Amino acid sequence: MNIAWQTSVGKALSNRSFFIGLIITGAIALAALVSFVWTPYPVGAFDIAGKLKPPSATHWLGTDHFGRDILSMIMIGSRNSIAVAFISVAIGAGIGVPLGLWGAASGSFVDEVLVRFNDLVFAFPALLSAVMITAVFGPGTINAIVAIGIFNIPVFARVARAAALSLWPREFVIAASAVGKSTARITLDHILPNVAPLLIVQGTIQFSLGILAEAGLSYVGLGSQPPMPSWGRMLFEAQTMISIAPHMALFPGLAIVITVLGLNLLGDGLRDVLDPKFE
């Protein structure tokens, strides 16, 4: 087992997409962790005299229209983006995967209800769901998480269902059923382990989409609220300053692009490593 694990790790690290994606996402995660204990400047400290300064040795990424350090805001904003994306993916996988596996195992009426439920939820994208939820409960990070999480449920349900349906006719599943294993036991012992690699890859994809969705919701004022920094709201605040302080929009935008790129590369690498069809 140890030799097999070392071989898998070596194979993963030798994959260029996986390695580059791991470095990028690791750097973003490290910046988020470091921001809990240190940032170059307090994000709540306004310095009107030093507003709209371009990148310099004092402020590496410049300052915004309130004189706040943009690097510090990006570091703390990464915490919010990662937390929203991670929790929403966890909600989607935690509910969607069991539903998908249940539908594939049960068939007939249950499976049909699941498919129709997926179609219904897909009709309401994350942004529209957030608008409806905000209309009732008000804007905020929790509501953004709920909206993105709800949108993730049918994604994971469809992936789990499709993968499971392809496995149920397989010989090892038929053999497990022949020896008296229950449907639930077969699902846990044989189906879930075989669909797990595909779900892990899908998780990285949804994670990157969660980053984009959180930024979009914050941009329109439905995500995290002041004084908590957010990449999306930083872009919103920068749009009126783009002609005199382009760095206000440039660096939050780059943070989003680099994070999404890293997660997509990581997902591609995981697909290559975990899916034998890509060997």
UniProtKB/TrEMBL annotation:
The chain crosses the membrane at residues 18-38, 82-102, 122-151, 249-267. Residues 78-267 form the ABC transmembrane type-1 domain. It is found in: Cell membrane. It comes from Phyllobacterium endophyticum. InterPro entries: BP-dependent_transpt_permease, MetI-like, MetI-like_sf. GO terms for biological process: transmembrane transport. One of its GO terms (cellular component) is plasma membrane. Gene3D superfamilies: MetI-like. It is a multi-pass membrane protein. It holds the Pfam family BPD_transp_1. This is Peptide ABC transporter permease. PROSITE patterns: ABC_TM1. Keywords: Cell membrane, Membrane, Transmembrane, Transmembrane helix, Transport.
